Fold:
Amino acid sequence: SVALKKKVEHSIQEKQKVLNHFKKEHGNAKLGDVTVGQVIGGMRSMPGLLYETSKLHHLDGITYRGKDLYQVKEQSPKAPGGSEPLPEAALWLLLTGEFPSQSELQEFQTELFNRGQIPAEIEKLIKSFPKTMHPMTQLSMGVLACQPLSKFAKAYHDGIHKSKYWDPTFEDALDVCARVSRIAAIIFHNCYGDNNKIPTADPALDYGANFAKQLGFNDKTFWELMRLYIVIHADHEGGNVSAHATHLVGSTLADPYLSFSAGMNGLAGPLHGLANQECLKFLLDLQDKLGKTWTEDDIRQYVKDTLASGKVVPGYGHAVLRKTDPRFMCELNFADQFISKDDNLVNLVKACYRVIPNVLEATGKVSNPWPNVDAGSGALLMHYGLNQFDYYTVLFGVSRAFGVMAAQVWSRGLGLPIERPNSFTLEHLIKKVEHD
Ligand code: NMX
Ligand code: MLT
Structure:
């Protein structure tokens, strides 16, 4: 959309002035000290990144351009008759800081639909991936298969001036967001169905509905869930592994396809995105063991056994959050609004929420005993019959594209340099501390 590109260009120019002035005036201002514990401990809470699209607060959760998820849900344009925020409106918000008007939104929806087309030979390649390959591996490879379409890579090869990097990045970022749901739909049918019979996308539908439709789901409430799911998983500031991996790889001027694929490899780890698949498995194993008449005492014991066997309780804890993840609350609110009170799995999620934080707290070492987004998503998807839980992280990946790709447009717009922090051997670290 010409309007969107103009808005992005204008706000990048304005922000660039602020950044240049700020860097000149305050480039040497200190943000804090770095401790040995942080260097050894995965850089927890160490400031180190400029990331424009979202900011995480340890108690209030994520804000997209200053709006928390409840405000996003309330203020976002909705599908006709719907109550959930629209992913394409969230993408516009992440890129510009505001929601689109109704006419801007309609034009943008059509544009994304058109950008979502994938050339036949690339679709054929993605369809040839083995059924047994993990869907996240297929997602990463599917995105890479589209990399030859990169407009940034071509523009760079043709000698584009560095002040213009953001422009082909913007083009690629929108293409990646538009294409990723098509790639994901092909993967779904590769793994669990017949990839010669993928339902077609409908230009009259919004992004979330179209994605759900291509997966083979026609329940309108599931479409609402997909819209909400994509919006709440889209961004979680810059330090989480998928955003940081995308940002890091992008900082080399690798194009958005290469960088997003790298981010997806990080999302595929069980401590990050894959936790939602692990989480559902945890709940189903619990149901398998205890039947549907479990009690809170049963859950307590099951969690203690899990901890005693040296495993983490998936869906609980967070590196930054210190309270229940608002994304989990959005999931519970959705369940309360749309799912009947006798869904055993959803009730199990709620019972876990009553029981697990106390058990984790009692270990004395878990920094955040509260549920994160993964604790609830699987049970909602199961309710609508999406029970292929190997696939859940792909849904997360489709959503994460919206955040990390919008952020990449801004990173190139602000001219951020290649990332290159310092590392130490343990010996160097010990010597440095002893000599200081
Ligand atoms: N179950 C059991 N132990 C836990 C849990 C948990 N859910 N969360 C933290 N701990 C342990 C952690 O393993 C560590 O133990 P040790 O010292 O023996 O290595 C100790 O508590 C301190 O870790 P924290 O500082 O609380 O957590 P950290 O910031 O290192 O890690 C997570 C954050 C999210 C990786 C961690 O809480 C975890 O593994 N949770 C379960 C997996 C999960 O739900 N991941 C999804 C994250 C959200 N996402 O959307 O990606
Ligand atoms: C995320 O959404 O990326 C996760 O909650 C992990 C994180 O923020 O570290």
Q: What stands out?
A: The longest helix spans residues 166-192.
